[in-house]
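Hello,

Our lab assistant flagged a job as stuck in the queue for most of the afternoon. It eventually completed. Since we weren't sure the result was trustworthy after the delay, we are filing this so someone can double-check. Below is the sequence as submitted and the structure that was eventually returned. Let us know if re-running is recommended.
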Amino acid sequence: MPTTMLKSQLQKCYLFADLADKLIDQIASSSSVKEAAKDELLFADGELAHSFFVVASGRVKVFKLSPDGKEQILMIANPGDSFAEAAMFAGGRFPASAQALVDSELLAISRDKFVALVKANPELSLTLIARLSQL
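-- returned structure --
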């Protein structure tokens, strides 16, 4: 995906909608595009959280399995939605699983690079705190 399209997709995301172009550029450079086929498991509950995601196209289901194997859907992420931020910020493991419901294109934002951006940019930190508190 060309950089201009990557930036455009990030600006559609609620978390990043009002950020300055410079910060969007830096987030874009911390991102990679992931293609996910229908029914592809993106990550499983308990896996190391190395990134979080923004849906560029398609739909993703975030879910938990109960001990008896019943699925509980936590959210359906649509274009412009982000998911797995909490695990990424906590620096731990994914607390749920995610699966593409249809062929999807995702922006995977590297945890290490993003955390470095947050530490270096108070504006980004404050915006994220405000946005996440409103969800």
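-- support follow-up --
The delay was a queue issue, not a problem with the job. The result is valid. The mean pLDDT is 89. The radius of gyration is 14 Å.
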